[in-house]
Amino acid sequence: MYRYSSINGLGLDSMLLTMAKGVAELAGGNYFYFATFIGSVGAFMFGSNTVSNIMFSPLQFQTAQLLNIPPTVILALQNQGGAIGNMICINNIVAAAATTGRHHDQGHRGQADPNGHRAMGDLLRHLHHHDAYRHAARYCTDGLTFSQQVARHTR
Fold first, then answer.
1. What is the DSSP letter of 82?
2. Residue 136 above 60 pLDDT?
3. Residue 39 CB-density burial (10 A; 0-12 exposed, 13-18 middle, 19+ buried)
4. Most CB atoms closer than 10 Å: which of 18, 46, 60, 124?
């Protein structure tokens, strides 16, 4: 919708360009961190890295061009942030709870259940024993380190 908003009777910039200018002014040289954050928030909200990329990649690309940053680097950070956000999105938490048999505790939100356990803590302890989730947590940490390294080497 916002891609072709520059076709208007008043000759105004497109919504995409206006948003990109605002983000570029706000973030400046720290945009490397914003790019990852935007990807994470998009995937968390929409429940999908793909949808986050579809929605926010044009904004990321335009902002990178305005800041004279290689767009491929910023789009890679968008995708990386989307992967991080996808791991913590509500859809995946519910799926993990159902897979691990903790789906009956989802209404407790950390409060003690009748057995005296804390639902979220019990779920996290159970997930900790699965290699896939250990690797996912490590990926989050490595991803943030990667953003810092990209920011340092691209400036």
1. H
2. no
3. buried
4. 60
